[in-house]
User: Fold these one by one.
Assistant:
Number 1:
Amino acid sequence: MTAFARPAVMGVLNVTPDSFSDGGEYLDPAAALAHAARMAAEGADLVDVGGESTRPGASPVGEDEELRRVMPVVEALGRDGAIPVSIDTSKAAVARAATGAGARFVNDVTALRGDPALAAVVAESGAEVCLVHMRGEPRTMQDDPRYDDVVADVKGFLEERLAFAVAEGIPAERVWLDPGIGFGKTLDHNLELLRRLGEIVALGRPVLVGASRKRFIGTLTGRAEQERAAGTIAANVLAFERGAHMFRVHDVAATRDALLVASATLG
Ligand code: HH2
């Protein structure tokens, strides 16, 4: 999966009642599967199935409830095989069940800090893993975030988490890094991270960016969540130009087209 020849698009599939832009839309497995099929048809390279919102202020979800939400969808997508599946979770039990049902990618916003058993599950499953920078936890992460130098801090964190993953038996070749846009960051922090993304890319692992519809785009444009596709595309095209490899988005078709044109233009 790390060998995408062109920028890769990860379609967001939140099987949650409370996600910030699509909460409640895909709680019904049939609706979730229809949305996955739509994103695949629009050119998504994989779908990221999540059962716990990580929006600022979100409450944690128990393991049984998370499994109940995501597994019917992951199992059906795994059986179908039409599109690779990523599981957006911090819990070892959820990652174990999802990789057992065919998920090839574990997207962990805690960067293997949330559940001490998750690293071993990733190592044994052969799945790829994305390590995301987050300051604090979703409930409190937007309470006055401060950094000496946000890019240096995020880079140092990701370097340390990459070393941890490798020490736990996950080959570096299977690790993706993500600066965690919106996870304990102000508008200026997000813009600085995107502007200087090359410093994160320099760590030598492929970089995933999750800017889709996030609050900083609403702050800049004055638009509601569902109207932030153009702002999202601007952020993603600039991130691509600075070396990012994969883009986690709600608006797959428009993002794919923009990245194809950007990629052809840059050569
Ligand atoms: N952002 C969200 C969730 N998962 N994963 C990665 N790797 N990077 C991100 O930036 C990222 C992520 C939050 O967005 P969303 O899934 O749309 O909302 P919610 O957390 O409310 O479900």
Number 2:
Amino acid sequence: MQIDNLRPLRDVIATHDLRAKKSLGQNFLLDLNLTAKIARQAGDLSACDVLEVGPGPGGLTRGLLAEGARKVLAVEKDERCLPALAEIAEAYPGQLEVVNGDALKVDPLAHLNAPIRIVANLPYNVGTELLTRWLSVPWPPFWESLTLMFQKEVAERIVARPGSKAYGRLAILSQWRCEARIAMTLPPEAFQPAPKVHSAVVHLEALGAPKFEADAGKLSALTAKAFGQRRKMLRASLKGITTDLEDKLEAVGIRPTSRAEEIDLERFCALSRLI
Ligand code: SAM
């Protein structure tokens, strides 16, 4: 099924000579039915502005617009992609704004109106950094949801439960203030060029309020220390973080001999309130 009347992405890439650059984490999606399916994971976009980081030749951008996004702000670092994106902007007058720049430096709020959703096939080199930033903004956040492509391993860390190998700081920080789930998994062949790893789309829906009371800075520092030495017992890994550490651990129901990966979100939040 054709999602729009624009040219196939292979033609676009050939015309504009968009050879993928490894340094920019470029692995392009060429199947527009797949990009439309990814866009649908973000829910009804017809009343939303969407921030897309790294549109590249525009496969996901076209998916988002075909799925009815009110407006898309596409932030792309590689200026070679601009002519391809201009073709899409022409087909959707007033709905696509392209900013040539580094997503780590662009302020999306200067361009978008609420409600805002973020959807991106992220460059792997900046993916976790952007996620951590979006999770660290004052709450409630400026965005309603994040629908993001990651390496499958990173996606598994975001949705991980206590007791699993993937469980750590990323799971705590993501699940404290969001419902997080893996919406789709994709094999390497879905991309051009194919990366070495499998990928997954994670959907995070912002909760109105955090699941448990805690100070964001303290929770972040506590989990960094606890999981920084994840094989150690907490009485050792958290040494120096507070006075009377063992009493405080026991006061919130944590055995001082347990390890970080055994502790659920509720108990990490309770401990952060005591330090
Ligand atoms: N969205 C396209 C797709 O799905 O086919 C391209 C995805 S590709 C994995 C990542 C894109 O992010 C590339 O187009 C790359 O140039 C761009 N990019 C890399 N670093 C960036 C940054 N710091 N800010 C904005 N875009 C960036």
